[in-house]
Amino acid sequence: MVTRRPTWLRLTILLAAASAGCTQSVAEMPVSHRGDVAVPSYAGVAGAPPYCARLAGSTALPGIPTAVGLLAGDPGNVEAEVDLTAAIDELRAVLDDVRPALDDAVGELVAALTAARDQGLTEAVRDDISAGLDELGTLVQPACGFPT
Fold first, then answer.
1. Is residue 68 situated within a structural domain?
2. Close Cβ partners of 146 (under 8 Å, ≥ 6 residues apart)
3. What are the φ and ψ backbone dihedral angles of 46, each rounded to 5 degrees?
4. Looking at the domain assignment, is residue 16 inside a domain?
5. Which residues contact 120 (CB under 8 A, 6 or more apart)?
6. Which domain of life is it from (predicted)?
7. Taking 60 as the threshold, does the pLDDT of residue 143 lie above it?
8. How many domains is the chain built from?
């Protein structure tokens, strides 16, 4: 008599075997293989400063426009405030890596995002965020060589 394993057990064994080689967590994956980061295709250019990889690997910075939009329509939106807090935290971590020329740009962007989160989104704060993102992008692009 041939005994067969239950279908659920065969599927479990099949899934376990198929996933045996897939033990790398998303956080450990190279930036170029992740879809939830600011610049998924970034491979780094020769001599790029460490902050380039940190910016490219950001998971919170791409959410800034959405968070700002949510706050514009719904002041005090908790989800938007949480997203801005994550972006602020990532930018503060970038401050550890940046050269002095970027300190002001990153600091001003952090201040603008903090103001949006804590005091509300005014037109002036929205303009400061936009200008801060533009300035930071202009400053880091030559050193990082992000794909355009």
1. yes
2. 39, 42, 52, 56, 140
3. -55, 130
4. no
5. 71, 75, 76
6. Bacteria
7. yes
8. 1
DSSP state of 40: T
11 domain-assigned: no
- Residue range(s) defining the domain that contains residue 85: 26-144
- Position 11 scores a pLDDT of 31
Decide if 89 is inside a domain. Answer: yes
Most confident range, picked from 21-30, 47-56, 97-106, 111-120? 111-120
Q: Which residues contact 84 (CB under 8 A, 6 or more apart)?
A: 64, 67, 68, 71, 113, 114, 116, 117
pLDDT tens digits, one per residue of 22-80: 333 334 444 444 445 667 767 777 888 888 888 888 889 889 999 999 999 999 999 99
User: Is residue 25 exposed (0-12), middle (13-18) or buried (19+ Cβ within 10 Å)?
Assistant: exposed
- Length of the chain in residues, anyone? 148
